[in-house]
Amino acid sequence: MALKAFLDYLKLEKNYSDHTLRAYEQDINEFKLFASESYGEQDLTQIDYHHLRAWIIQLVDKGISNRTVNRKVSSLKSYYKFLLKVGDVRQSPLNKHKSLKVSKRIQVPFSEIEVSSVIDRLKESDDFKTLRDLLIVELLYGTGMRRAELSGLLVGNVDFEQKTLRIIGKRNKERIVPLLPTVIRTIYNYLELRTSVLEFDQHSPLIVTNKGLKIYNTLVYRIINRYFSEASDKLKTSPHILRHSFATHLLNQGADLNVVKELLGHASLASTQVYTHNSIKALRDVYTASHPRSKK
Fold this sequence. Notes:
The structure is a single chain. Helices cover 56% and strands 4% of the residues. A three-stranded antiparallel beta sheet has the order 1-2-3, with no helix packed on it. By secondary structure, the protein is mainly alpha-helical. Strand 2 (164-168) and strand 3 form a beta hairpin.
């Protein structure tokens, strides 16, 4: 019952997505199973830190990355914080726990040439499926939206008069982003063909499958991975790399960090600053070209 109350709290009070809720539930149940099998303890309110430490050691021994272990422990931290709030425990067993050290992952963005090559290839055909895939690429790269945000778009989210898009982000936070003229044209063309699989309705999903069903996150991943793995030799070719590319290319062109923050829908500037490392080369080029002593 405590777990259900916790998940309801995250959903109703924190507006967490279903995907996030499933991750929390899985992590907590995973530890609960470990505590039961290893110590015969099924009541998580009776857990001590040594139980949790043993679980963490087991996860590391299994070869699970420190980053993933930290995420799982974070789920437990949030759960015990909730139990503390409702009075089920007097203190969290994770009070003094320190996160495992992780190396910073540098996400290598696609180059402008790689993005353009994929878009140019998709423009060679004008059937529904290809036009839909083109729109997916242009929306992800043209707005920096997340994959889940793309899947949740409705036809009514597009404001053709203002040339903007209303995006519902994490925890139902709304933001308005401008749309490039090329993206507006693709939306127009796509919607004309979309009527062959789904009737026009402002409240219906914008991006749909060949059968007229709302597109799902796994399909978005497959589409992006398919085209970009052919156009790029980068190890990772996921939709999130397009988000990185969007931010990096804007910063390379001199965009203000705060503007990029608002476009990405970040709650804090610290989240946006992770993209600045990719802009160091551009900064160095400007610095070298501009500083009066750079040629001496």
